[in-house]
Amino acid sequence: MNNAFSLPTRSTGNIMMNVMLALIPGTVLMVYWFGAGIIVNISVIMLVSVACEAFVQMLRQRPATPAILDGSMLLAAWLLGLCLPPGLPLFELIIGAASMSLLGKHVFGGLGQNPFNPAMVGYAVLLISFPKTMTAWISPTEFSQAANAWDSITQATVLDRLRDLERQGLSVYEHTLSPWPWNAINVAWLFGGLYLLARGIIRWHIPIAMLLSAAVAHGLHYWAFPQHTLPPSSMLLSGAMMLGAFFIATDPVTAPSSLKARLLYGAGIGFITVALRSFSNYPEGIAFAVLLMNCAVPLLDRCFVLETKP
Amino acid sequence: MIKESIQDLPGGLALQTPSGAHIDSTLHAMPLQTHYYLPLVNYQRDVLQPNVSVGDKVMGGELIASGVIAPTSGTITQLTHHTWPHPSLTKVKTLTLAADGQDDFLTLPNITLCDDSAEEKLQRIERCSVHGLGGAGFNTAKKIQRVMEHNAPTLIVNAVECEPGINCDDALIQNHSVAVIEACDALCKWLNVSNALLAIEDDKTTAIEKLTQALLAQQSTMQLAPLSAIYPSGAESTLVQRLTGIQLTQGQPAAKFGVLCINVATVLAIHQAWKGLFSAQRILSVTTQDLKHSVNLQVRFGTPIDSTVQFAASVNPFIAKSLNENRASVSVGGPLSGFTQTNDSTPVMATSNALLVGAMPIKKPQSACIRCTDCATVCPVNLLPQELYSAVSAQDTDTAQRYALDNCILCGCCDLVCPANIPLTSWFQHGKDELKHQRAAEQNAVMAKARSEKHNTREQQRALDKAKADAQRRKVAAQRSQSAIDIKAALERVKNKRPSS
C-alpha cells in the first residue's frame, strides 16, 4: 500500500517490541528481589518456545524466520517466565513452554487463531501438574544475596501466606507481611501499562474495567470479612494484578473486538480473579480468570456486533 | 434537515499530501488525438448495443450507443474488444473513432431556465450524456429524477476530492469559480432546493477564497461547508453523513432521503448541457506516485491513457522523470483506490479522476491478523473489518453479512493501518462479488423452483385431464360395448323366438 501520506504505520513486530519494552522495568525489579532465576526461567522458556515455533513452521512447510521475528512467541514466553517461581526444575520449564506454544497456540492454527491466552495455558498446565514447586517462591532478597538464590529458603508469596493464615483462623493484622517488593513490582507493571496506553498499543477498556471490578468485588469481601482479607488498596498491588491487567488480559488475539464487550471482558476477569483468590484453593486467580473469560469471548463478540465505537 | 454542526465521522484518516507538494492548478487542454476508444458499457457495467457501424461518419455529440456520445467528429473504424478503466482489467466491446480534425459538434438549442419544462431539462441532461464526474460515474439524469419526487430537496455539491493526489475539482474551482456558482444556483432554482451546501476541504484556501468572492458577486444562496480533510469524506455516503447525520447503507441512494449529492464538475456539466454543450471531457489529475507533483488536464473521453500521460510529461518535467523510473507504471485512480493499468491504450472515462505515474511502492510481506482492531478504529462506517476478514476469508458469507459486508464502502483505510499488511479491501471486494454471485444464484434457484412448480402443476393438470378423458372414453366404450351386447342379446332372442324352419 502506498504510504506517501507519512502515516504512522505499525507492524506486528513493532507492537510486540513495544510490549516487551514496557515489561523491562518490572522484570528488572523482579530480578533484583528474586535473583537471576527469573532470567533463567525467561531464557529457557524463550528458547524452547522458539524451537517449538520453528518445528511447527517446518511441519506446516512455512518459513520459520518471519514467524519467530514477529515477536509474538518471545513475548508470550517472557510473560510466562515472569509468572514462574525461580528455581523451577528444568523439565517443568520445558513442559510449560511446550504446552504454551503447542497447546496454547499451534493446535488452533498459529498466530491470531488461538482462543486462549498461550502464556496462561502454559501456566495453568504447570500449576495443575506441579502445584508444589509452582507455589514455592523464594523469599525476596537483595540482589547481593541472590547469588545463592538457588539455596535460599523457599517461601510463599504474600497471597500464599495470607491463605495459610486464613486456614489457621488467624487475623491478617496479627502477622507482619512484607508486601513491599510485590507492591513495587506491581507499580512497575503499572508504569509499563501506562506506557502502552500512551503509545496506543493497548486501549484503556480492559485494564480499567478489570481493576475496577476487582476493587469493587474485593471491597465487598473486605467489608463483610475485614479480618480475613487484605485492604483493597494493597490488593490491587499484590500478586500478578497489574501484570494481568495491562499485559495479559489485553492480548488482542484472545480479547473481544468491540469496546463494550471489552469492558465486560475486563470486568469478568477482575471479578473472577477476586473470587478465586478468596474462595478457591489457589492463592492467585488471574490465569484461570483470563482462561475462563477467553471462553466467553466468542459469545461477547456475537452480542456486540456493529457496536465498535463509543 | 441540515444539522447545526458538521458531524464528525466515526473513523477515517487525516491523509496529508507530503510537505513540499506542488500542485499545478492550471488547466492544460489536451490537443486533439487521432484515435478515441469508446467502451460500450455503462456505469452499471451493462454492455450496450452500438447505434453506428464501422465506416460511419459521426459528428461530435452524436449518440453512438445509449448514453455514449462521440467526443469529436470522425469515422468509426473498428468494433473490437478493448480494455477499459476497471480494476478487473477485463475487455469490453469498444468502438474506435478516428478523428477527422474538424472537431464539428452537433448544435443543440439553448434551454432557458424559466421557459422550458422540467422534462425537457432532464432530457437534455440525458442527451448530452452527463455522468457523475466524481468517481462512480452515475447517470445524472436518473439521479436527479429520483430526487424530484421530493419537495424542496437538499443539495450537496461535492467538491471534496476522493483522495490525496486527486485535485481536479480544486483546479476546476480555481479556474471557473463564477461558472460553478452560476451552475449551482441554476440547479437550486430548478429543483426548488431548500438547503444548498457546497462541501469542500478547509485546506483548499485558494479555492475557498475564489468561491467566497463568487458567492458574494452572484448573491447566491449557496452555503459553503468547509470540512476538515478526513479521508474518505468525498464518498457520497460519508459526506451525507458528515453534513446531515443521515446514515446511508450501501446501495441506498441519498436521493431516497431527498438529498441530491452531486459532484461539482457534474453540476457545471449540467449547466453547460442546457447551453447546448456536450459532456465530452473532464478534468483529470496526473500525479507522481510519491504525490509530490501534480498537473491537471482537460481530457476528452476516450483518449488513450498513454497519450494523456505523455502530454502530462511534456507539461511537467517531474512527471516525465517519474515516468522514466525503474518499474514505473501508470495506475488509474488515487493512491488508495487506484489500480495498475496494463494496456497503454485503455481510454479515459467519466470516472477516471486521476492517473498516478511512477514506481509502485513495494508491498510489505503479509502476516496473520492479531485482532489489534486498528482497522475498526479507522473504519468510517463503523464496521469490524477484522471479523469481516475472518468471515470472508473462510468463505462464510452468512457471517460476513451479519457483520454488514454490504455497508463496506471499500475506502481502504483499514489497509493503510493494518500492522499485518493484510489487503483487507481486496478481500471485501472479493466477498461482495461472492455475495452478488450467491444472490444471483439464489434468485435463479427461486425462479427455477417456481418454473418447476408450474411445470409440475401443469403436468398434474394434464394427467388429471387425461385420466378424466380416459374415464370418459372408457365409459363411452363400456356403454358402446354394453349396447352391442344388448343388440346381440336382442338378436339372439329374436332368433330363438323365430321357429326354426
Order of strands, widest sheet of chain A: 1-2
Report the uncertain regions of chain B.
Answer: none
Apparent shape of chain A: globular
Judging from the principal axes of the Cα atoms, what is the shape of chain B? elongated
Sequence of secondary-structure elements of chain A:
HHHHHHHEEHHHHHHH
Continuous helix count of chain A: 14
**Radius of gyration of chain A, whole Å:** 19 Å
Q: Biggest interface: chains and residue counts?
A: A-B, 30 and 47 residues
Beta-strand fraction estimate of chain A: under 5%
C-alpha Rg of chain B, in Å?
A: 32 Å
C-alpha end-to-end distance of chain B:
118 Å
Strand content of chain B: 15-25%
* Strand segment count of chain A: 2
Helix content class of chain A: 55-70%
- How many angstroms does the end-to-end distance of chain A come to? 29 Å
Average pLDDT number of chain A: 83
Could you walk me through the main structural features you see in this protein, from its secondary elements to its overall organization?
The complex is a heterodimer of chains A (310) and B (501). Chain A is mostly helical and 310 residues long. Chain A contains 14 helices and two strands, in the order αααααααββααααααα. Chain A is globular and about 60 Å long. Chain A starts with 11 loop residues before the first helix and ends in a 7-residue tail after the last helix. Mean pLDDT of chain A is 83; it is low at 141-155 and 169-178. Chain B is α/β, with parallel strands linked by helices and 501 residues long. Chain B has a domain at 374-436. Chain B is 39% helix and 18% strand. Chain B has a six-stranded mixed β-sheet, with helices on both faces. The longest helix of chain B has 74 residues, at 424-497. The mean pLDDT of chain B is 87. Chain A binds chain B through residues 1-7, 9-12, 14-15, 66, 70, 72, 110-113, 252-253, 255, 257-258, 301, 305-306, 308-309, and chain B through 10-11, 13, 15-18, 164-165, 289-292, 335-336, 360-361, 363-365, 367-374, 376-377, 379, 382-384, 386-387, 402-404, 412, 415-417, 419-421, 423.
